[in-house]
Amino acid sequence: MTDAAELRARTRELLAQHPPAGTEPLDFLKARFDAGLAWVHYPVGLGGLGVPRSLQAVVDAELAAAGAPDNDPRRIGIGLGMAAPTVLKYGTEEQKRRFLRPLWVGEEVWCQLFSEPGAGSDLAALGTRAVRDGDGWVVDGQKVWTSSAHLARWAILIARTDPGLPKHQGISYFICDMTDPGVEVRPLRQITGEAEFNEVFLTGVRIPDAHRLGEIGEGWKVAQTTLMNERVSIGGMRIPREGGMIGPVARAWRDRPELRTHDLHQRLLTLWVEAEVARLTGERLRQQLVAGQPGPEGSGMKLAFARLNQEISGLEVELLGQDGLLYSDWTMRRPELVDFTGRDAGYRYLRSKGNSIEGGTSEVLLNIVAERVLGLPAEPRNDKDVAWKDLTR
After folding, report:
1. In percent, how much of the chain has pLDDT > 90?
2. Residues 47 and 39: beta-carbon distance below 8 Å
3. Which of 174, 185, 192, 242 is the most buried (most CB within 10 A)?
4. Taking the CB of residue 34, how many other CB atoms lie within 10 A of it?
5. Which of 194, 230, 297, 316 is catalytic?
6. Buried b (16+ CB within 10 A) or exposed e, 121-132
7. Does residue 203 sit in helix, strand or coil?
8. For residues 101-114, average pLDDT
């Protein structure tokens, strides 16, 4: 059994063999993965050692103290938080060995091809088709709100493989090569002025059956693993006290006493406490993950994340007065990552509006919490047993 002391020894051995100051960052990350110190709870040979997830903190502390490079999780968050857990659970051994190492070290960026213009909140109504053709599939359709599609090499994709079945049953799950012919990525300019999201058109895209995850027709079940991990990764990020959106507001309050009013003080105190409660709840949720797969509780965390970000950014704009109305740069660009705390108050205010949509709309997540956490009666759904091809659209 590997314990904390042995993990420290393994980490120090890695640092001795590959000194961060004299090793290229990518080479160091590859060596770390091969040593089983990437995500220690993953199996041996896949970047881990098969030990409890809680021991990752031991490795991370040693590496941080030594100034070792990280894999820039913000840039590859979809791969780390969504694709990797799904590949680990449903992938073949060949798929795991092909995809997990370049994903973790950041050589290959991933995106998510789930939502469609007519299937966002009701994702199971998706219409993108995958038709069997020999030893592969031909995919046609359109996806939307795809973060990082302009950077991605791979995508996790769900498509309809049997329109004669009810909508949840006729879906399969694939890994799509974003460099293949027939994949077209177009930018979607947002209220921030940037095009962080994209729409993706798939026209006659060929995907080998070897890039299918899970059984044919079980794509919705596979997608649930992705979605639950997505909500945990969005709403349950590890941050220090006064990390995230509450930090800039608290600093502005301390640094600029002339902006203070009694009303703003009361609102700031309330939001500070709520942000701290959410942070500690996220810590508890991560401890629960040590025992198994994420559950619907991640939906509650994602709900709180969206609401708090929007309320805190609104308070910040009010606190700053006329300075809060300024916006530094409307230049159209296609960024590699989202940086909430490194930008100005105007950006935070505008960008947070998307938090209640991305990663599952707040309305859908409220239903999930009501039905799966609180055990309330489910809403009537008259289309669950109707073939997708017979649904009114």
Report:
1. 72
2. yes
3. 174
4. 13
5. 230
6. eebbbbbbbbee
7. strand
8. 97
What is residue 13's predicted lDDT score, i.e. its pLDDT? Answer: 97
> Is the pLDDT reported for residue 236 higher than 90?
no
Active site residue 230: yes
Both tokens of 137, joined, read 């599939």
Amino acid 342: pLDDT: 80
> In whole angstroms, what separates CA 9 from the centre of its chain?
32
Span 223-245, average pLDDT: 79
Asked whether the beta carbons of 383 and 165 are under 8 A apart, the reply is no
What is the per-residue pLDDT across 116-152, written as a single tens digit (0 to 9) for each? 998 987 899 999 999 999 999 999 999 999 999 999 9
Residue 244 φ/ψ, nearest 5 degrees: 70, -150
Tokens for 96, please give them.
């795991």
Question: Do the beta carbons of residue 1 and residue 27 sit within 8 Å?
Answer: no
Residues 163 and 388: beta-carbon distance below 8 Å: yes
CA distance 222 to 211: 14
The span from the CA of 301 to the CA of 292, in Å, is 17
Residue 44 pairs in a beta bridge with 48
Q: Which own/partner pairs from 264-270 qualify as long-range (CB within 8 Å, at least 24 positions apart)?
A: 264/315, 264/318, 264/319, 267/315, 268/315, 268/319
CA-nearest of 105, 7, 4, 21 to 67 is 21
Pick the closest to residue 279 from 323, 232, 236 (CA basis).
Answer: 236
Q: Residue 159: what are its φ and ψ, rounded to 5°?
A: -145, 155
Query: Where do runs of H (alpha helix) occur along the chain?
Result: 4-17, 25-34, 56-65, 77-78, 84-90, 93-105, 219-235, 246-255, 262-289, 297-320, 345-351, 362-368
Which of 291, 279, 290, 268 is CA-nearest to residue 235? 279
Instruction: Work out the number of other CB atoms within 10 angstroms of the CB of residue 4.
Output: 13
Q: Any bridge partners for residue 202, and if so which?
A: 141, 183
Q: 265 with 361: CB under 8 angstroms? A: no
What is the pLDDT, as a whole number, of residue 235? 54
CA–CA separation, 316 and 352 (whole Å): 12
CA 389 – CA 393 distance, rounded (Å): 9
